[in-house]
Design the sequence.
């Protein structure tokens, strides 16, 4: 695959990822009249907050014991839930808890990194946390869409796009809003 083709795919994935970020951002931004530069900076730092997590994942090659997915495999036979409704393996719950905490810490670190005494009350903290979550989700969506596009083809992008636009992006907003 040529560099130009890779850049075109990344551009298409970034365009797709921008749709939910812009939509959700507009929904929350129209209620706030904060400084646009500060919002954009928070969004960008939130977008870059994904990279330390990718570095952590990269370290798994050299330190396999750090891989949370492998560490929780021993709990895959233990399930939680109601048999008639749904059973969730304990390994899935532990993994999501671990990953979720790391993601929230990274998003909140980005809010604190750009806090220029703009956060005056709890509403501001929630608003900036949401903007950081949108930046984080934007980068994460680019990575997901790129991997699907390259691995399975662009024809398989619609369902993940809808799911990540509605549910995953909103989950980032919700959890960061609570954490904020």
Sequence:
């Amino acid at each position: 695959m040529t560099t130009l083709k890779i850049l075109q795919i990344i551009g298409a994935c970034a365009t797709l990822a921008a749709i939910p970020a812009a939509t959700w951002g507009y929904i929350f931004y129209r209620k706030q009249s904060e400084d646009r530069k500060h919002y954009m900076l928070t969004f960008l730092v939130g977008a870059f907050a994904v990279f330390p997590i990718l570095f952590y994942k990269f370290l798994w090659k050299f330190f396999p014991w750090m891989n949370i997915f492998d560490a929780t495999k021993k709990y895959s036979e233990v399930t939680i839930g109601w048999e008639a409704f749904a059973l969730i393996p304990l390994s899935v719950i532990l993994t999501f808890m671990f990953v979720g905490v790391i993601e929230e810490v990274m998003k909140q670190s980005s809010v604190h990194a750009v806090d220029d005494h703009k956060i005056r009350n709890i509403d501001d903290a929630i608003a900036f946390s949401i903007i950081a979550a949108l930046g984080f989700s934007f980068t994460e969506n680019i990575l997901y869409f790129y991997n699907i596009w390259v691995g399975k083809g662009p024809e398989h992008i619609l369902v993940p796009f809808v799911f990540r636009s509605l549910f995953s992006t909103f989950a980032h907003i919700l959890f960061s809003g609570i954490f904020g």
Notes: Helices lie at 3-29, 36-48, 50-59, 68-71, 90-114, 122-152, 158-179. The CA atoms of residues 56 and 62 lie 10 Å apart. The mean pLDDT is 88.
